[in-house]
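This section describes the prediction task in plain terms. A model, or a person checking by hand, is given the sequence of a single protein chain and must write out its three-dimensional structure as a string of tokens. No templates, partner chains or ligands are provided. The sample shown here is typical of the held-out split.
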Amino acid sequence: MAQRTEAAGSVALKDGRRVTIRPLTEEDRGALAAFGQSLPKNDLLYLEDDFSNPDIIARLAFAARAENWRQYVAVTDDGAIVAWAAALRMPGWSHHVADIRLIVGPSCRRSGLGMYLAQAIVEAARELGAAKVTVDMLAAQTAGQAIFSRLGFAVEGQLARHAIDRDGNLHDIVIMSAFMKP
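The expected answer:
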């Protein structure tokens, strides 16, 4: 198993608040569930993982020890999770590729946390041995696209009506990628 980064550390947000970015642990299950419950319904419509489902939260917390999957959270001093990110190295012929997911809670958006967490999870993907990192997001999620563009990601493609939200509406997704420097 690859050596894991134990913590990305404490970061100061634009408004002066501090959060700690660190790997998710199984003990974070309750805080991750609370984070999922705190997300607005509109956020839940577009997430690949249903953060309002206790079974999904259990799976995510249990996967904290998975060999080809890294998850990071941003935690406040009181232990509340305010953001989550994951890097999953793909199997088979795409074993050199890691897929990234990232969600920042409403209270910390536009605070710089998305960039800090994106940097941490891209580094985690590198530690997983990924030579290429991809991120898929809805075409309407321009703030997320801007974060990954600043990290050197480029749009690789757009798929029309490729995502369906929990209300049954179809959405275009943008696929962005970056090659990792050794």
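For orientation: Residues 113-127 form the longest helix (15 residues).
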